[in-house]
Design a protein that fits this description.
alpha+beta, OB fold (Dihydrolipoamide Acetyltransferase, E2P), 6-stranded antiparallel beta sheet, DUF4087 domain-containing protein, signal
């Protein structure tokens, strides 16, 4: 009986580990150039968070991103623009953020000083 309990626990742990996405910290330019279009440009990639139309409300955790225009922010198109941020995310490993776990807006100077980041836009 002890063998079956141990085997069940190990199987459950392996299954959970296999299905869990690894959380990543991604820092760079958070861009919202037009309604419902969001992406994060870090030193490695440009990560699509949401695109207008098909992706609206598709990414769990979008509610963790506050109104970025209330802090250090560059307005580029009416009420839209970009800021500097670090995010805890899960990705598809290619170019999409699939889940947002945390969000922290930084001073623009932080991203501007990072030579690995391209200018937004």
């Amino acid at each position: 009986m002890k063998y079956w309990v141990a085997a069940a626990i190990i199987t459950a742990a392996v299954t959970i580990a296999a299905n869990a996405q690894a959380a990543e910290t991604r820092c760079g330019w958070i861009e919202n150039p037009t309604p419902a279009n969001w992406w994060l440009q870090d030193a490695e990639n440009t990560w699509t968070i949401m695109t207008q139309g098909e992706d609206v409300d598709a990414v769990e955790g979008m509610d963790l991103i506050p109104d970025i225009s209330e802090h250090d922010y560059v307005r580029t198109n009416g009420n839209y623009g970009y800021a500097c941020a670090c995010m805890g995310v899960e990705t598809d490993g290619k170019d999409r953020i699939t889940k947002i776990l945390s969000f922290r807006q930084l001073k623009l100077a932080k991203c501007r000083a990072d030579k690995a980041l391209k200018s937004p836009g």
